[in-house]
Amino acid sequence: MRIIQDVQTAKSTLLKRLPAESVELPPQAKARIKEAFGKELTPDEAVRQIITDVQTRGDAALFKYVEKLEGAILTRLEVPEKEITAARNNVDGELLAALQTAAERIRDFHQKQRELLPGGRIALGEGLGQVVAPLERVGIYAPGGTASYPSTVLMTAIPARVAGVNEIILATPPRPDGHIPPLTLAAADIAGIDRVFSAGGAQAIAALAFGTESIPRVDKICGPGNIFVMLAKKQVFGAVDIDGLQGPTETIVLADECANPASCAADLLAQAEHDELATAIMITTSPELARKVNAEVERQLIELERSKIAGVSLEQRGGIVVVGGMDEAIQLVTDYAPEHLCLLVRDAEPVVARIRNAGGIFIGESSPEVIGDYVAGPSHVMPTGGTARFSSPLSVADFLKITSLIALDKRTFEKLGPQAAAIARAEGLTAHAAAVERRMGLEYRVCSHEEERS
After folding, report:
1. Per mean pLDDT, which range of 64-73, 133-142, 283-292, 392-401 is the poorest?
2. 248-390 falls under which CATH superfamily?
3. Active-site annotation, residues
4. pLDDT of residue 20
């Protein structure tokens, strides 16, 4: 890994944020685009063409892209319920128990969130209130294909179920043999997902956003994915809600001279093995720790099954930044706004209090990011690409909507009406003003008429 000891250099290179559209794709991804579309396209152009095709041709487009991009030939998109049940029954008992433990902890954590966000009609005084209600139908996206990510299924679907969403749909890429990995299906069953579809990438996002003959249109799409999934979510936003633009995953390890070099290296490698576009960075106040971690990374890397992927990630996007003190380190973290922040420092609590931007903070040796990825409880779907400056990890709140209620009494209306009319006239909206003034005059006339009759 490169070690940078000048903060300005770090800001202009390793810590510089680039638009997702400008990310350089790996050669194999470029080749796949050219093969699928017959010409070279940018990721954004490819995604736009896929979305248009799915909108126009529905299921036929999905079948085409599953074959071209996933290498699978399908006769149906929806996974039969019996296949989902069989998958759960065939999962190793110890692994199934681990998934159930994770599900219980995720459910318990989000249930506590739900208790802080009561549903139904809530009075807020003076004729005002709100109705808090869950979304009707939500689409969950989980990466798949040759890999399986049951944790993503649990981390997205369970908060939706706890929120009270009526129907939850999962879209995930099939393997080349046309089947969804059994672990993904087992997790879908544990999480209580209603329907599962074999569709991945931008085409799955388009299907969930606009609907096809087989896949119903949803109200919101949640879940992480590769650059194509992220760009597709960006393009369909407005026609459907999204949880955020979770692009390639990222971690900053903030460590001082007390940190264990082996643990720092392990955390960086755990991040880097996600994919070649993942970002794993360490910021430290200790030059000696930087050298030791760099050596540990090289030693541990050769032991990994995904060493090639992790190696490319670390070479292209990873590195270690040595700073003069903790104040400087904290400022760099806050400016970068990482998805994950791992704190391996002597006294973490004062540091936590000063971190303004991070998707999740993992404090100390006993709370590595990996535990958060799987079993801690909070959703591992977190803001990437610097969006932690203004957005949050997936939560129960993502699946609730608020309807405002206005039911003023006559006295309050008479008090506020003239002010509303005055503002309306100042804006040149005389019909707005008249809608108030006529009501006030009508109300007075009715009262006078009734008084005369009595």
Report:
1. 64-73
2. Nitrogenase molybdenum iron protein domain (3.40.50.1980)
3. 339-340
4. 67
